[in-house]
Amino acid sequence: MMSNAGRNAEIIRKRKAGEFPHNIAQEMGLTKNTVIGVCWRAGIIKDDRLEAFREAWKVSPHRKGRPKGAKAYKVGEGLKKHIRNIYRRHSRDFSAAEIARNYGLHATTVYAILKVGK
């Protein structure tokens, strides 16, 4: 039996080689979620859809009261639609607060997007 560090290194090596998480898990006798978690924490899994929706943000000028250097973002229609699709009430990963953290928004902005979409 190998140490966690050795196990994690092996998972990362296999994932970088192009193997799928479910195949790695089966070979190593782990769960798929364990493999995905190791890869996520190592930063080798990224969600391309997330990047596409982040690009949908538009920088727009805002009130004069904004601190120097702070940017205001206008949430594009694509991101609004994405937020409405991924939101899950009482979900740990897809709650309004978690979505707000992931996209750098304020929770009230996410709630406003969800209300308008109904």
Number of helical elements: 7
Q: What would you report as the Rg, rounded to the nearest angstrom?
A: 19 Å
Strand content range: under 5%
**Mean pLDDT metric:** 77
Morphology call: elongated
Taking strands numbered 1, 2, ... along the chain, how are they ordered across the largest sheet?
Answer: 1-2
Give the % helix.
55-70%
* Number of discrete domains: 2
Structural class: mainly alpha
Describe the main β-sheet briefly: 2 strands, antiparallel
Q: Secondary-structure element sequence?
A: HHHHEEHHH
Task: List how many beta strands DSSP finds.
Answer: 2
Note the gap between the termini.
52 Å
Low-confidence stretches: 58-67
Sequence-ordered SSE layout with sheet pairings:
Blueprint: H1 4-16, H2 21-28, H3 32-42, H4 48-54, E1 58-59, E2 73-74, H5 77-86, H6 96-103, H7 107-116
Antiparallel strand pairs: 1-2
How does this model look, in words?
The chain is mainly alpha-helical and 118 residues long. It has 2 domains: 4-42; 48-116, no CATH class. It has 7 helices and 2 strands. The chain has helices at residues 4-16, 21-28, 32-42, 48-54, 77-86, 96-103, 107-116; strands at 58-59, 73-74. The protein has a two-stranded antiparallel sheet with strand order 1-2. The longest helix has 13 residues, at 4-16. The radius of gyration is 19 Å and the shape is elongated.
